[in-house]
Amino acid sequence: MRLFIAVEIDDANKSRLAKIREELRFNSSQGSYTLTENFHLTLAFLGETDVSNIPMITDAMDRVEFSPFMMKLTHLGAFRRPNGDLWWIGIDSSEQVKQLQCRLKESLFSKGIWFDPKPFVPHLTLARSVRLNRSLEMKSLLSRKVDISLSVRQISLMQSDRVDGKLVYIPLHTTRVQNLS
Question: Domains in the chain and their CATH numbers?
Answer without folding.
Answer: 2-176 (3.90.1140.10)
